[in-house]
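May I ask for whichever protein you like with its backbone structure tokens?
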Amino acid sequence: MKGALMYQQLTDPLGSIWLSALLAFLPIFCFLICLLVFKLKGYQAGFITVIIASVVAFYAYGMPFSLIGASFVQGFAQGMWPIAWIIIAAIFLYKLSVKSGSFEVIKESVMTITPDHRIQVILIGFCFGSFLEGAIGFGGPVAITAALLVGLGLKPLHAAGLCLIANTAPVAFGAVGIPIIAMSNLVGVEQYEISAMVGRMLVPLSLSVPFFIVFLMDGVKGVKETFPAVLVAALSFTITQFISSNYLGAELPDIVSAVVSLACTTIFLKFWSPKNIFRLDDLTDFSHHTQLEFGKVFKAWLPFILLIVCIIVWTQPWFKAFFDKGAVFDYTKVALSFNNIEGSIVDSAGKALSLNMDINLIALQAGTAILVAALLTIFFLRIKSNIVEEALGDTLKEMAMPCITIGLVVAFAFIAKNSGMSTTLGTAFATTGDAFSFFSPVIGWIGVFLTGSDTSANLLFGPLQQAAATSLAVPEALFLAANSVGGVVGKMISPQSIAIACAAVGLVGKESDLFKFTLKYSVGFIILIGIWTCIIAFLMPGIIPEVIAK
């Protein structure tokens, strides 16, 4: 129901798009200063950023305070559900594995494949993390893989930072292709064209990320010593991602690529190992790591096997059908409604933005799938109630402040989106003419930094990218794909991702340290992606697929 209060988003409140863009950038700038200069904790920086964004939205954009408040509630709720819910469930599952003793066997099983930390990061952070990204997305992969690597002996900051970087290659196809599918539905372009272009643009990134991770850990020497294994992992992943994105669509590239890469690398390591074993801890004696019985290894990995099974079930159409309107489990859906002001915000084109939010307690919620995996783990491993209680208590205690941080960060993103600040930033870049080929992925990068989600960035800036492509006579698929590809390297510096990673490895309050670790690499990657987009636009237009409108 549309209320009497109406607000139409402003794109250029100051009458100069670049001055307006500077103003819209002010909350982001303050967030960076809070983290990097004043070294405030994540929730403190998030709170200050929300206040500044609200002031800008109210005084400069003229957004009514009631709509700012509704945007805050909408964003904070989105931060809690599904994002924080996924993290809580993932950490609970991990805690169960640790406290039940299973994780010690997992560490031993990984050590029997290779005790080398460089290759362990590739296997878990890159390969297994890519599978999780393709299956659940929304921060869960970084939380799970970073926690696993800390358990294997990596320092928390290294584990979190390396997993954030490893998580770049699969983000565009995360959560069963939702970022691309959502943008496809929004802009009216077939997802296969966008998926194919994303797959083609990602080739250099997917191929280089595993080598870059090893380089960060052990320099050129490390790359030379592990080159064969890393090459197998990188090539098998990249080739599979390219083929599946071009011929299967957006849903499966991450999952298929991760499985192929993990299998190929593990098999290769049966016949090859690095001459020197690299560790970031003090472990030097590997003689006691003998081959474990299959049953013992299977039991130890059962929590994560159940996780995979549950995620697969949760993504099946037949399962989702149980929760459709009028179906047997329809009652598990609730709604966050602002009926008196719903429809009060319209964009510059006059399209109403919804303030209401549907909350599916079971269907479409990766967090619930992870929780079910945890409950099944308790049952099959016969974990005692006191261990379950301890694991749950530790999880809730450790996740309290990170969840608040996530809620505040997403609340800021919704205020920026609903007020028009995000559109102002994108529109400013769209005025750069031919140089927009460079800035196209930068817009996606900014979008993911703001929202923490490639899906949200694609929904936020997809129409702008499409309009810019039309005005510059560039095939739409290039800029639409560039938005998503630029976004993947923004994920490692997104405040939401930083908060999740810190929470997973016990670095709550140290968000500024992790942000400084990833920032320079994210900036470097986005510059290279911008150059790569220009090369495609001006020198290699033949690789851009023809766009077919829906």
Observations:
- The first strand starts at residue 7 and ends at 8.
- Strands lie at 7-8, 333-336, 345-346, 352-353, 357-360.
